[in-house]
Amino acid sequence: MERDAAPPEIDDREPLPAAEAARLSESLDDENRLKPEFVRRVREALDAGDREAVYEAVEPLHPADIADLFELFDEDDRLALAGAISDLMGGEVIAELNDHVRELLVEALPPDAVADFAEQMETDDAVALIEDLDADDRQAVLAELDPEDRAAIESALAYPEETAGRLMQRDLVAVPEHMTVGGLIDYLREHADLTTEFWEVFVVDPLHRPVGTCQLSWILRTPRTVALTDVMKRDQTLIPVGMDQEEVALRFQKYALISAAVVDDSGRLVGQLTVDDIVHIIQEEAGEDVLLLSGAGDGDINEPIALTVRTRLTWLVVNLGTAIVAASVVGMFQGAIARFALLAVLMPIVSGMGGNAGTQTLAVIVRALATNQLTSSNTWRMIAREFRIATANGLSLGLLIGAGVALVFDNPLLGAVIGAAMLINNLIAGLAGILVPLTLEKFRIDPAVSSAVFVTMATDVMGFFSFLGLAVASGLTG
Amino acid sequence: MERDAAPPEIDDREPLPAAEAARLSESLDDENRLKPEFVRRVREALDAGDREAVYEAVEPLHPADIADLFELFDEDDRLALAGAISDLMGGEVIAELNDHVRELLVEALPPDAVADFAEQMETDDAVALIEDLDADDRQAVLAELDPEDRAAIESALAYPEETAGRLMQRDLVAVPEHMTVGGLIDYLREHADLTTEFWEVFVVDPLHRPVGTCQLSWILRTPRTVALTDVMKRDQTLIPVGMDQEEVALRFQKYALISAAVVDDSGRLVGQLTVDDIVHIIQEEAGEDVLLLSGAGDGDINEPIALTVRTRLTWLVVNLGTAIVAASVVGMFQGAIARFALLAVLMPIVSGMGGNAGTQTLAVIVRALATNQLTSSNTWRMIAREFRIATANGLSLGLLIGAGVALVFDNPLLGAVIGAAMLINNLIAGLAGILVPLTLEKFRIDPAVSSAVFVTMATDVMGFFSFLGLAVASGLTG
């Protein structure tokens, strides 16, 4: 893993020459996406086997944009591109790649090449690279690493996936309590092997337990003679090494953290997390609810297609089961439908509108649970809130459709039946939309994954049952 | 707005006394949410009018947790709580409050009290506080501010909402190119009025245009005599002042930024954005897709209920329209249904499964568009991908339901009809799920807001039409 010499990262490049700046603006559009013309040009050069042209086009790009370029190509072009720009494929590009794309490229490489990448990367990125490999390949790569890097990666791999232990950086700056601001600056200047990737300095006690954090701007603003214990903030957010990444992301967000100390069970400082590593987790965790609720798994467009089909089909088959249950409710009323086929025309309106209302409530509640806004302290208030919303919407929709049906079909009883069924199903939808996710959450089942099946079943079954049942009970069908 | 004296934020508090630490752990659970017992205790003290007990319970909390506490209460308790802990209601608490809760509290306060809060806050938070007020209140508050603060807030308010100009911090550290590391450190120590909220120093040319950025850790690791131009990074991500916040968030994420320079049209440095201000935008923008797709507006559980009803009802009425269109398709087949009522039993299965498959594709495509993963360079590959997935799922589901229906009802022709309809509707679902959002995006309409209506209509209409139409065409209904 990268250890910079001091003075770190001296950048003696000239400002971008005009030609290069122009080439860069050729590659990115206003919204910072790679331009289609640019992508096409690279693809054509790849197809023509003109590696030099490919290299020249890609070279000015930021590593994150190079990673994006890989995602835009299909599998064959990805491997060809990696071959053409192997000199540019540094640890930064690899770290920015989509998981599936990285796996494809890494599987095509020999272990020593993977090890070379891992050595260029920070611990967390190297772990992300190596954790994807199967056991044999993983051993082969680890064997190629420096003993120190290997030890760091192996100890990270010992923590479960998606925990702070996997994500954290082991390289950090920790200093004893007795140090002064001047002493710290001298220490930083003298130790060439320290990381440059830090935004705060951790002050630790003799047992290496964090006692405070110094933001670098405070250190730069303070006279050399002041003790660190006088500038540091004692009130810290410590992250236990086993904490789930979703929880870590919420804490970074809630307390607006830039970095945080990771501690083991005995409270010793074992690593740091910085916000730039957390930002993509915040985005992933917030964005995954829509994918999970719709049964699209992690919804990654780079996923191998067989895996996508399996994930989506599993969900669809489960829903087929609930659709059959709902259909069997309709089956109970076949006789009535045969006598009065208009019921079959109108019944999907009632079930469908219930489904829409249920999905609205479900989306709101799943987000509120995920962001810790809905807790047991406001559960009852929120249930009452959803009930009031469902009543208002159900009455409005019931009146609207009821009056419409009564007029169009000149049948006030039919209007009353569909209006009442609409109100009932909206109430079912509102209550199912909040009670289902709350119940799943209580049993520690992710409400985003399983709620929709139950809510849809409730609104389908009750939509059909309330409408067809009321129609029969009211004597509409003779 | 806060301007710290150097040495900044010297924290001379003792470590938390044991009693206070214990009280803190009494208030938060393992997942960092306020414990229900704690919330209940505060609520009881509020109801009993025991302001001292309320103050004592709330005082050890972090401002973000105090803000959470407000959200857990209903409107009356929120105002009572604000009264009981007015000493603790600093700018930080106000800044952390949910928009709706903040509006409620701020409307209850006189202008000079609001102005006092604004002066304690950083520009961006003060802007967020004041932008909610109506024009008269806003003028009254601005009149109470220091001229300098007023100017800063007024110029921020001149930028459109949700742009970099609204979000940015005006306080930053910018230094000329000729400075050395030592010169910078001396400048920072000598200027007591500089902000302490910075993570990078911007190096500017004589026209105040940024030419490079220095990470503070590099400055601390470098000998005093080195020129800043030798440690700074020239390759910067500059944010135009009019850039939309969603775009800003994507850029912070893509390039792992901690802070970034905001520049005006002539390229002059006018402010900075720091990642802690962007993190909640990343979370909001990623989380809003599920709410928008389901028609739940911004889905905030603290929103006044009338507003929530209006938002959700609008969406439901639009969907009622599409449900009526779908029902009218069924209406075309009333005669067939009257002769063969089993069709009415089975038809919701076909339309419902199409709806599920369409929602899956839609969720994936909306996320891929929002994260810039789907661009015109890979559109055709993605359409082909969704078509293949839809074919695989459609064939599987069609065979499954077709064979099941053939066996259960001992009617192979009925099985063939429903199987074929299922395949057709899955293809419709897959294609609508990708083509609808792509088309909306082309016309610069947010695909998350409007796609679901069109996709559901397509799968409902085609589900009914393909199944009932095939049933009639095949002679099933005699």
TrEMBL record, chains A, B:
Its main location: membrane. The chain crosses the membrane at residues 313-334, 340-366, 387-409, 415-440, 452-476. The keyword Nucleotidyltransferase does not apply. It is a multi-pass membrane protein. InterPro entries: CBS_dom (IPR000644), CBS_dom_sf (IPR046342), Mg_transptr_MgtE_intracell_dom (IPR006668), MgtE_N_sf (IPR038076), MgtE_transporter (IPR006669), SLC41_membr_dom (IPR006667), SLC41_membr_dom_sf (IPR036739). It comes from the Bacteria. Keywords: CBS domain, Cell membrane, Magnesium, Membrane, Metal-binding, Transmembrane, Transmembrane helix, Transport. It holds the Pfam family CBS. Homodimer. NCBIfam families: mgtE (TIGR00400). Belongs to the SLC41A transporter family. This is Magnesium transporter MgtE. It comes from Novosphingobium tardum. The gene is mgtE.
